[in-house]
Design goal:
The protein has 19 helices and 16 strands. The protein has about 500 residues and is an alpha/beta fold. A hairpin with a 4-residue loop joins strand 5 (about 50-55) and strand 6. This is Hsp70 family protein.
Length: about 500
């Protein structure tokens, strides 16, 4: 029997805490969520923890499902989290935009923080995920792959903020190394020293241009479920991907050319370490408590927490008058100065936690406002003629009412009604009906896989993207002098 050719593209959402994968049959424009299980599908098992362990004998552990991590009995000398942010920091540090992160301890006198070792560790994680995803496809799609010669390719997501940075080249290089490592006839290395030697050999012979791996803006991929739809309306949109470690926000103009080809022009991209896990970790570091408890407050007890935040905010706003130069922390007009003064006194644990969560709101407001106001500076005309501004929310943190309310209330907290910003219209990303199979996972969890789904779409099928650096800020329109009308005061332009 003749062997046919099957083109499969992996979309790898290399998240701060979890790595998610979708695979796409590009011949029929159909994507599947990779669940990494052979039995009953599970949301938790489809989220591969983005972490790596090094055991005392140098054994490497990564690319495991959550249950596989729980079953591990080997003691680990080093557990490495936030490996994506550590990789990005190599370049962002030089550009003055790095994320706060702890230094990794040495392993057997080896500095894990140097550039080559960080690249190698990320390479190993991604190669493990790629191999695991391919194995899942072979086991769970036997009819699809039978008698087929498969041409594999892959896209990895990179924040828009990195795309105009040298970090983009590093992400693509690491993905290419991971691809070669996963395709080797030899099994993946089990030990750290072996990994270093294998990747050193790969670096000597690699030809990056020949490897079918590409770095794609995450936010562009995240909104593909909307922009590839024929029902998508041209306009300016905002998207916030609320993850475990970060919030990535971007603004973009969606339009179609005369041939009806979709286009996406990005005006701004901001990434901040304000995701659920990162925010809980920061709050926990300010007080003696439980990070798990704070995460639970943010995700499970949001309604109760928001009511308590409102009560304490209104009380402080009434107790402390606002003076020039004060920074407003949230929609209830409590100032950061009032919060900091209150924290200097002996307050109960719950009050202290709430005050830090309000400061968290202030940081989120700042990011949201920066994304929106940058887009306004680049497309003033749209803001002048629009009655609403659509904001899409995605990522695991989208379910948290704390994040929903904080993003929505930025309009009031930052007085955007005085800045000619139209009212926010916060919406969920639409589900891509007809060409995504959630592999048994409920459709309501699509927001967890929106980026991976978009990344599974090959570049040739996706809307053309132009990046923020292509769009300079527009200067404000000059103020036109007012000509006094007859019967008014001619010398002061007043309307008395």
């Amino acid at each position: 029997m003749a062997t046919a050719t099957l083109d499969l593209n992996l979309g790898i959402d290399f998240g701060t805490q979890f790595t998610k994968v979708c695979v796409r049959d590009t011949g029929i424009d159909q994507s599947w969520v990779v669940t990494f299980t052979n039995g009953s599908p599970s949301l938790n098992e489809a989220l591969i923890p983005t972490k790596l362990g090094i055991c005392s004998d140098g054994t490497l552990l990564t690319g495991l499902t959550q249950s596989e991590w729980q079953r591990q009995t080997q003691s680990m000398s080093v557990v490495i989290d936030y490996i994506k942010m550590r990789l990005a920091n190599i370049d962002l540090r030089e550009e003055g935009n790095q994320y706060p992160s702890d230094l990794l301890p040495k392993f057997q006198e080896i500095d894990l923080n140097n550039t080559e070792n960080l690249e190698n560790l990320c390479t190993y994680h991604l190669s493990s995920v790629i191999l695991k995803a391919k194995q899942w496809v072979y086991k769970n799609n036997a009819d699809l792959v039978k008698n087929q010669k498969i041409n594999w390719s892959a896209n990895i997501g990179v924040p828009v903020k990195y795309i105009d940075s040298r970090a983009i080249e590093r992400f693509q290089k690491v993905l290419c190394l991971a691809w070669l490592l996963s395709e080797s006839d030899e099994p993946l290395p089990l030990y750290f020293q072996e990994l270093q030697e294998r990747i050193k050999q790969l670096r000597q012979n690699i030809s990056y241009g020949k490897i079918p791996c590409f770095a794609i803006p995450e936010i562009a991929a995240g909104v593909y479920s909307y922009t590839v739809s024929r029902q998508a309306e041209p306009g300016l949109y905002i998207f916030f991907d609320i993850g475990s470690g970060t919030i990535e926000g971007a603004s973009f103009q969606f339009w179609r050319d005369n041939n009806e080809m979709p286009k996406v022009d990005f005006y701004s991209g901001e990434v901040e370490a304000l995701g659920v896990n990162a925010l809980a970790k920061w709050v926990n570091n300010q007080l003696s408590g439980s990070k798990v408890e704070i995460e639970n407050d943010i995700t499970q007890n949001s309604q109760k927490i928001l009511k308590e935040i409102q009560a304490i905010s209104e009380n402080l706003a009434n107790s402390y008058s606002t003076i020039q130069g004060d920074f407003i922390a949230n929609q209830f007009k409590v100032t950061e100065r009032a919060i900091e003064k209150t924290l200097q006194s002996n307050v109960p644990h719950q009050t202290e936690k709430l005050l830090h969560l309000i400061l968290g709101q202030s940081s989120i407001h700042n990011q949201v406002a920066k994304v929106i106001m940058t887009s306004k500076e680049k497309n003033r005309e749209y803001f002048q003629r629009s009655s609403s501004l659509t904001i899409f929310l995605g990522g695991g943190g989208r379910e948290s009412e704390y994040y929903q309310d904080t993003i929505q209330s930025t309009y009031s907290a930052c007085n955007h009604h005085h800045a000619d910003v139209p009212l926010y219209q916060v919406e969920e990303l639409p589900f891509p009906k007809g060409n995504l199979d959630m592999s048994g996972i409920e459709n309501r969890y699509f927001h967890r896989f929106a980026v991976a789904y978009g990344l599974s779409i090959p570049e040739a099928e996706a809307p053309e993207v132009r990046l923020p650096s292509r769009f300079p800020h527009q200067p404000p329109q000059p103020v036109q002098p007012i000509t006094p009308e007859i019967g008014r005061y001619p010398d002061d332009h007043s309307s008395m």
